[in-house]
Write a structure and sequence with these properties.
Chain B: Keywords: 4Fe-4S, Iron, Iron-sulfur, Metal-binding, Signal. The complex is a heterodimer of chains A (about 375) and B (about 260). Chain A is mainly alpha-helical. Chain A contains 14 helices and no strands. Classes of the chains: A mainly alpha (about 375), B alpha+beta (about 260). The complex binds iron/sulfur cluster (3 copies).
Amino acid sequence: MLEKAINGSKIYWGWIAFLLLLMSIGAACYWQQLSHGLTITGMSRDVTWGFYIAQFTFLVGVAASAVMLVIPKYLHNYQKFGKILILGEFNAVAMVILCLLFIVADLGSPQRLMNVLLHPTPNSVLFWDMVVLNGYLLINILVGWVTLEAERKQVAPPKWIKFFIYLSIPWAVSIHTVTAFLYCGLPGRGYWLTAVLAARFLASAFAAGPAFLILVTYIAKIFTGFDPGKGVLSTLGKTVVYAMCVNLFLLLCEVFTVFYSQIPSHMAHLQYLFVGYHGHGVLVPWMWSAMIMAVVGILILIDPKNREQDNLLIIGCLLIFIGAWIDKGLGMIGGGFVPNPLHEITEYVPSQLELGVSLGIYATGFLVLTILYKVAIGVKQEIE
Amino acid sequence: MKTQRRNFLKIAAMAVLGWGVRPASELMAAGGGTASEGLLFASRHKVHAGPNTLTASRWAMVIDTAKLNEKVMEDIVHTCHSIHNVPTIPGNQNIKWIWETHMDHLFLEDLHEYQPEAGAKSALALCNHCDNPPCVRVCPTKATFQREDGIVMMDFHRCIGCRYCMAGCPYGSRSFNFMDPRKHLETTNPDFPTRTKGVVEKCEFCAERLAEGKMPACVEVSEGALAFGDLADPESEVRKLLAERFSIRRSPTLGTKPCVYYLV
Ligand code: SF4
Ligand code: SF4
Ligand code: SF4
């Protein structure tokens, strides 16, 4: 089926060339990082995780979103999602690859990466994160490829694949839960030391992930004429808006707990993020933009009539997606380190080279996504 | 068959609970006693002792804040950093094994504004060699590990530079080599390894000196402000100091059981 990826229009090849260009920029920046070390980033002794780990955390959520198609289709027999299910699975493949690339980019000694396997350490959550991420990658490659192959031959998919489809449901939950567990359970980091962190991660994932899927499906529709079927995307939009409501609710739970208890080490981080702390507050405008985007996105999408209109659905999804990205891709990790446990404030802003490396990684992920979507949509159009 | 299966289930259950469950051999409750057992997986490593090696069941340090002054603290920091090839790097990507900081940063919850000199006074911060160290718990490669005598050590050659241990340590005791540290060394002590970029490092309670029968360097130059000894031995200097004077530890409510004590 891969041959579908090498027959494309000028626009397709132009896009691929553009991504390759961004990838080479990223590679050049990463070369700088390899030779000079992580000193090229904006990270410091106090803020030891930055943009890379934040992107990984956010993208795990986007990857987990495939389950929002698998559950209705297989557990509730909602056949309409059948048509875009493969897009969800291939999206998960691309996103997990992005996650893994961001983790590797963040390592100080990437040449020793294999030490995680050579000295498996079950008491480290990072070990389990590696296990579940790679497992999820394999499951989605397998399920996506086998079902697509069957579709192409116009036969029913083999029975054994059902097992992996059902397995993918708890597994998707696990990748985001384990990722949240990386943060919660660390003493002295008040912002992360909360039992709702995993729940919040899942809620924001099930908002941002499907929102992303809706957006890329529209893009695919524009360029290939692929028709996801009537009402599919607006139904998925329902998931987006409800998940975002839950996410905001959980945030309010957090705010209440922290500020009613008045424990300084827990209040400090939220204060830093939303109103600034001792005169420091680079993230304040970002966090408020994120909140406004989330609320406006919810107001737009909560009305079923709005979800039926392509333009409003796109705008709503875009707002919610960007809002969730700011919250997790900037605030969650940076805000957790500031102020540090000694109550010292060191702010963090990603450096240009750091952003360059990230750009290259994103381009790599989109290249994988483009190729997989090209194949999937090509097969679908062939059999029609 | 049946018992085999039961044993297997038991082991599996223990494995799942793993890092949360620690045997209740509380150190202090036993009036010293031996080091408590480590995490199920992050088990403690044997100490290889030579003929001169100083040994203990549980090494600990006592810092007398009344005896610290600017000069002593400077000497201590300088001595530790120079013999351990700790580079002097300006900015916030620096490396610190032991450093001077305000008392109110060290003891966020214990001091108040009406104490004499609270806040103005400084003391030394270093790795606490916690008895229940979160840095060991989170490390995915066992590059950070704990010895049976309580010292939390680092294997610089195994560390992948993920910096999870830095997120885990609630005392800011660890530093990461963001850049090549060798470029920032004016002189090098050939008896101690230098590090490379991309690994974490911290104070190791001078394990390399203990192996040769010597006390930690900072203790030697501290003019009596620092004491080092076996917490399990009631006759040791540290136990005597702790019995005579009032002492506090950094963030004890976090459950990490720091083994650096401050006399106030
Ligand atoms: S002070 Fe920090 S680095 Fe040292 S043992 Fe405790 S947690 Fe680990
Ligand atoms: S940075 Fe090194 S020592 Fe710290 S957790 Fe990672 S591998 Fe372990
Ligand atoms: S015990 Fe040794 S390594 Fe630790 S601070 Fe003192 S001199 Fe430095």
